[in-house]
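Proteins fold. Shown next:

***
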Amino acid sequence: MDRFIFLMLASILAGFALLKVPLAGTFLSGIEPITDLIGLLAMLIFSLVLIYKGLMALLGK
């Protein structure tokens, strides 16, 4: 179970890093909106999974 939680935390950090990566001035600058969307979705989805798992652990299910 601990590996799963650490994996979710690492995924949230990866999403945050994807949001903050500077792509201006590189050949990848055209896909910056896509990387922002992927980073935002990763942070949102994995945060919701952690909240759900935490609530299930508190409720004992």
About this structure: The first helix runs from residue 2 to 20. The mean pLDDT is 91. Residues 22 and 43 are 18 Å apart (CA to CA).
